[in-house]
Amino acid sequence: MRVVVTGAAGFIGSHVVDAFSAAGHEVLAVDAPGRSPTPDVARRTWARVAARPGVVAAEIDLAAHDLGTVAAADVVVHLAGRPGVRDSWGAGRAVAERDNVLATRRLLASCMGRPARRRPRVIIASSSSVYGSAGRRPNREDDPLSPASPYAVSKVEVERLAGLAARDGLRTVLLRYFSVYGPRQRPDMAFHRFAEAALDGRPLPVFGDGRRTRSFTHVQDVVAATLAAAAEELPPGIAVNVGHAEPVAVTDAIGLLTGVLGVRAEIRREAPVAGDAERTWADTGRARRLLGWTATTGLAEGLADQIAWHRELRALPGGVGGRPPQTGRSEEVRVG
Question: What are phi and psi of 251, to 5 degrees?
């Protein structure tokens, strides 16, 4: 099978490329690492991806370049985009519109331009943020959408475009990822910044009171769901939650992580960020029925895996003061 993975220099994308390559598929890895918020990190990951056997790497900006090569596949796994609720406000709104909405519109149009029998199946990364905050039960895929940030709004529009393409004959599938973590996590993400601060002995600023809950989902569980979606003939335009079924409060996650590290963290409270959900909670019944998938990695096990990766990075030559040379992190760590 010929597979195209967009966003291949990213956190999830690089793992998905690894999995398809390991399974013996022909993989075209696509990204524009220079557009990453942390381009040094992206380029290092990009070099690693390009070195995998059976992988061809192509630097393509989905919002600007010709996409004929991208559309010429059996399956396109579209993971490229500009992530992050916090950075999507202000000037970030236009960036999310370009890298999420415009890029997806152009990708879908290119796939639709193929002869009907040669159009790829398109697996598209969406986000739990489209729901807003969960209520007293987990969110189901047919719940009303309530985006609370420009990033979430861009993902709702991506889903709308995928639905229109499905009605026109393109086999699209939307995977709503929930709070993904694990090795190679982006430097701006909570557990990455948290682990680095704790290892440095710095305080951990926490947005709000720390009671916000998340369906934290390990990246290898996400990869398994993504590959399953690529292998199945699903109803065109369908959305599927990909998240751990048991939400965990931020304060409890902090306790698990510091327990693995063997440290006692100092926490400093900060004001909540606009658009951050109070609770994300995934109903995974549809994923079980259609993909035979459930998240199997508990948070303690998953955090131990991520922390081992941080420690490996710190042991690499070129680090300063034991720190990994490529994290690109700021001096503050925010968890929320």
Answer: -60, -35
Q: Specify the residue for token string 């979430």.
A: 152
Tokens linked to 225 = 């769901």
Model confidence over 205-240: pLDDT tens digits?
777 777 899 999 999 999 999 999 999 999 999 999
Tokens 């992206």, residue located: 42
Half-sphere exposure of 9 (CA within 13 A, CB side): 26
| Residue environment code for 200-232, b if the CB has 16+ CB neighbours within 10 A, otherwise e | eebebbbbeebebbbbbbbbbbbbbbbbbbbee
Distance CA 131, CA 129 (A): 5
Which has the closest alpha carbon to 104: 77, 141, 142, 143? 77
Say how far apart CA 63 and CA 81 lie, in whole Å: 10
Closest CA to 194 of 105, 116, 255: 255
What lies within 8 Å, CB to CB, of 17 at 6+ separation is: 5, 8, 27, 29, 49, 52, 55
Dihedral of alpha carbons 56, 60, 62, 68, sign: negative
Look at residues 8, 173, 50, 32 and name the one whose alpha carbon lies nearest to residue 17: 8
Q: What is the torsional sign of CA 7, 8, 14, 15?
A: positive
Question: Which residue ranges form the domains of the chain, and what is each CATH number?
Answer: 2-181+216-242 (3.40.50.720)
DSSP state at residue 282: B
Identify the active-site residue in 131, 151, 177, 181.
151
8 Å CB contact between 172 and 314? no
Asked whether residue 323 carries a pLDDT value surpassing 70, the answer given is no
Per residue in 141-181, pLDDT tens? 999 999 999 999 999 999 999 999 999 999 999 999 999 99
58 within 8 A of 28, measured Cβ to Cβ: yes
Annotation says 131 is catalytic: no
